[in-house]
């Protein structure tokens, strides 16, 4: 930390007045100042200013690496949804000094009297609004940084469509400055108001979710909540399949012959990431739609599992095969994956069930037969309708 060349400075709409003495000195000493046009104007950077390229890239800063007197302006806290982390990924410790201010989240939480550690703080500049879906639940609180003024209307409309129209919503413009302005009302009220009176950037949205149900927090979510053509792992089996796959945060799943991708979606909702391989184009489209709806980190590969296997990256901690399993696929997986991994296969066809019996005999693991019945209408009454028996093989390479 003895000789840093880069100053990363947080700045608010209050401009130079809000900077600490140390941040002001770093800014005054800089010969080159990078930032958005708005931040450069607030800092009165003049001819020293360099606007970020579009699309955003830190490369112009890195080209000056080691040249003293380089500063970067970002909003509030540079390492809380700011460009600080994007820069630090390319640098060694000690190359920069950080001059943070209170983040926009801190300003808005303080205005509303909310406990920040119990509030979801999100940057929605380049993220889909569906990233809110797994988090939405009654009385959960959110503070969201928005890309621009029109994004406030888009957010209100989306929340209304998702059933959260009764949620109280605050739109904070110019947070942290003397010019800050706050508009409040329900999501339904502001969705109508913003159509005629758009918000002005920079704008932050805060809301407390009310009126909706939220997403179930356990696997086995209803089949009706996924796009599918009938090729989908049914809810009871999916719950047992996820239990067998045992997802852990940050782990990867390969879902081969993915169908609707429902298993991969629920894996991702548990904190993982997934690659879905599906040979039918319409089903691959359904997988992409389900991934978008749940903001699931899924890569969709339209191909046969055996053909796609050599190019799939990264290697997974777990593999699920819900259809199209074969001895050839099992052998290919064993050759492809040298590290420890676990496998879950579900089979309804007798031929595949016989293969699982043989693999269990030779390789071990756990074998289950799953069968359940559902009450369905029988004239004016109800009767049990049994499902097809399903065999599940759970195996680990080590």
From TrEMBL:
The keyword Calcium does not apply. PANTHER family: COBALT-PRECORRIN-6B C(15)-METHYLTRANSFERASE (DECARBOXYLATING) (PTHR43182), COBALT-PRECORRIN-7 C(5)-METHYLTRANSFERASE (PTHR43182:SF1). Pathway: Cofactor biosynthesis; adenosylcobalamin biosynthesis. One of its GO terms (biological process) is methylation. It comes from the Bacteria. Its EC number is 2.1.1.132. GO terms for molecular function: precorrin-6Y C5,15-methyltransferase (decarboxylating) activity; protein methyltransferase activity. Gene3D superfamilies: Cobalt-precorrin-4 Transmethylase, Domain 1 (3.40.1010.10), Vaccinia Virus protein VP39 (3.40.50.150). Residues 6-191 form the Tetrapyrrole methylase domain. Keywords: Cobalamin biosynthesis, Methyltransferase, S-adenosyl-L-methionine, Transferase. InterPro entries: 4pyrrol_Mease (IPR000878), 4pyrrol_Methylase_sf (IPR035996), 4pyrrole_Mease_sub1 (IPR014777), CbiE (IPR012818), Cbl_synth_CobL (IPR006365), Cbl_synth_MTase_CbiT (IPR014008), Cobalamin_biosynth_MTase (IPR050714), SAM-dependent_MTases_sf (IPR029063). Transmembrane segments: none annotated. This is Precorrin-6Y C(5,15)-methyltransferase [decarboxylating]. It comes from Comamonas testosteroni. Pfam families: TP_methylase (PF00590).
